[in-house]
Amino acid sequence: MGRTGADAGPRPELPLGLTLHSPPPDHDAVVAALRRPRRVAALRASGVLDAPATPALVRLATLAARALATPIGSVSLVDADRQVQAAHYGLPAAIPPGAETPLEMSFCRFTVAVAAAVAIDDTRLDPRTRAMRSVTELGIHAYLGAPLLLYGEPIGAVCVMDRRPRAWSAGDAEMLVALSAAVTTEIELAIATRERALLHEAERGARAAAAAANRAKFDFLAVMSHELRTPLNAIGGYVDLMEMGLRGPITDAQHRDLARVKSAQQHLLGLINDVLNLSKLEEGRVAYTIGAVPLGTPVASAAAVVAPQLAARGIAFAAAPCPDDTVVRADPEKVRQILLNLLSNALKFTPRGGTIGLRCAAEDGHAAVRVTDTGVGIPRDKLAAVFDPFVQIDRGLNRPGAGIGLGLAISRDLARGMGGDLTAESEPGRGSVFTLTLPRE
Predict the structure, then answer these.
(1) CB atoms closer than 10 angstroms to residue 17
(2) Per-residue pLDDT at 39
(3) Backbone phi, then psi, for 221, in 5-degree steps?
(4) Which DSSP symbol is given to 245?
(5) 190 lies in which domain range?
(6) Are residues 371 and 396 in the same domain?
(7) Same domain, 261 and 341
(8) N or C: which end of the chain has fewer CB within 10 A?
(9) pLDDT, tens only, 128-153
(10) CB atoms inside a 10 Å sphere around CB 65
(11) Which residues contact 32 (CB under 8 A, 6 or more apart)?
(12) Do 413 and 429 share a domain, yes or no?
């Protein structure tokens, strides 16, 4: 604690940890201390230099004055060339909270310069203070200040002032140091609040930008899908005409070639539909027709579609009918779409001679449909990724004509859109189980 006055020597009763500075540094030392870049940066970061006085700071300035029985209390911020009264109690009305005062009137500059408590028992007795306007015009004859430390740098001071000389005690200094810590906490809370507000605004802006990008993406995909579907549908139509013999008889080899063209055309249409469907899900543009659905109906429909494909590939199909009383709340077309995706996915990864299963189960509050396969399985560290868009897990089978990794992502989003879910279990070398759960009616 620095002290100036009639007796400039150290006080034996001062608490440990308070640096002794007596008298305050000379003018050049003060200027150099106030202009240190790290200190100025901390002051700017506080956000209170040119901000209106807050009720909390006014209360703390008032508390300082009353606790130490002085007519004046102040929270002052000291810039490189000015002092700002962030809040005060008892100063003349001509110096409102937030007012700037010249550094020449500032006692707090000494406190900031030494970054320690400074006590001046009688300002009229020290040559560095007795000519200050604060002494000659405002009649400040005693000063006690404790530094405000932010990020370890002194940015200002909490101070009390008296209009008569005052022999400040160690208890006075301890009280003011505690109050300066409270002011620092208040400033830190204000900084955190501003940072949260800025972060919230940035997040809101990012969400708005992402939503705009999604809308633009959806609009682009909608236009492109239309432009791509038109020639693809024309290709499919001409293939059908040729297979019907409307352009003349065709050979068996030509039939096989046309079948390959038709398969490629259908595959491309499927990819386009997958991309567009995912965009619709992300935009929330998918409409659901939710109602009471006997689960066996979409299950049987999906099974009928894939059964011939499984037979052609030499894969056994163990499909058990759903109990008649298993009724769910769902969109039947969406359920059928999910099951077709799951069965088609199982077909891709199950070798000839394997088995694909399809069975239903009624469980507490929901019903489940499980699609099992005896394929190569999925590595444990890759299992969670199978539902990510555009992710394909290499399971070691040659899969010409595979998709682009959207089927499972779309299926899970559709399931969740109906209040259900889609999960996966797998053991490498032993196959996989995909479970669709839906709320029961």
Answers:
(1) 10
(2) 93
(3) -65, -35
(4) T
(5) 2-196
(6) yes
(7) no
(8) C
(9) 889 999 999 999 999 999 999 999 99
(10) 20
(11) none
(12) yes
Least confident of 15-29, 285-299, 374-388: 15-29
Q: Are residues 218 and 328 in the same domain?
A: no
| Cβ atoms of residues 130 and 120 within 8 Å | no
Overall domain count for the chain: 3
**CA–CA dist 14, 8 (Å, integer):** 14
Using CA atoms, how far residue 140 sits from 70, 110, 130, in Å, is 11, 15, 10
Instruction: Give the burial string for 290-311 (b: 16+ CB within 10 Å, else e).
Output: eeebbbbebbbebbeebeeebe
| Separation of alpha carbons 347 and 355, rounded Å | 9
Structure tokens at 112: 């900031």
CATH number of residue 95's parent domain: 3.30.450.40
Which among 181, 196, 211 is the end of a domain? 196
Same domain (yes/no): 125, 228:
no
Angle at 214 between CA 208 and CA 220, to 5 degrees: 140
User: Distance between CA 159 and CA 380 in Å, rounded?
Assistant: 65
- 142 DSSP β-pair partners: 162
Measured in Å, how far apart are the chain's first and last C-alpha atoms? 77
Q: What is the dihedral sign for C-alpha 363, 364, 367, 370?
A: negative
Rounded CA separation 431/350 (Å)? 8
What is the Cα–Cα distance from 83 to 63, expressed in whole angstroms? 21
| CATH code of the domain covering residue 364 | 3.30.565.10
For residue 34, the model assigns a pLDDT of: 92
Q: What is the rounded average pLDDT for all residues in the chain?
A: 85
Taking only the tens place, the pLDDT of each residue in 86-116 is 889 998 877 887 788 899 899 999 999 999 9
Question: Residue 5 pLDDT > 70, yes or no?
Answer: no
pLDDT the model gives residue 6: 40
> Concatenated DSSP letters for 270-328?
HHHHHHHHHHHHHHT------EEEETHHHHHHHHHHHHHHHHHHT-EEEEPPPPTT-EE
Residue with tokens 């700037």, as numbered in its chain: 100
- Indicate if 274 and 300 belong to the same structural domain: no
Q: In whole angstroms, what separates CA 38 from the centre of its chain?
A: 30
Same domain, 135 and 278: no
What is the Cα–Cα distance from 42 to 282, expressed in whole angstroms? 44
Tell me what pLDDT residue 396 has. 45
Provide the phi-psi class of 377: left if phi over 0, else alpha when psi is between -120 and 50, else beta: left
CB 82 within 8 A of CB 126: no
Final residue before a domain boundary, out of 164, 196, 228: 196
